[in-house]
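1st attempt posting a full record on here, be nice pls
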Amino acid sequence: MAISDDIWNTLKGQFFAPGSSESGNPICCAVASKVLDIYREEHIVEHTAEVGKHVRERLEREFLPLPHIGSLSGLGLMLGLDIVVDKKTKATPGLEETNLIRRRGFEQGLYLRVMGSRLCFSPPLVITQEEADEALDRLYPILAELKSS
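the predicted structure (as tokens):
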């Protein structure tokens, strides 16, 4: 963003949050409005809650007991597993271990988002329960085979 010296001197030292080119743009607002219509018509929120509940139940039942899963959090289809080296201390693995999880996921046809020691499960909102189960079935052996350092 380019501004004059007078404006800069007025704003200097103050919080200033400029908009972006799509902020308030009527075309972007129309698209967003249509997306919300589609969410309502296709019951996306309800679908997400239903599939998310199923996924969370599987993660709690099958994944939380694994030695290297420290905790589970999230809501709907935005869930996360904390990868730990030790459940008692909650010590987190290093980059080498988390990169190994990513690589093994890729080998199984999964794109895994591991941020720090957190494995994020946030698939498209239109994922079916069967597709979610397939992803979890592929993910489980990767996490079950993690070795202690």
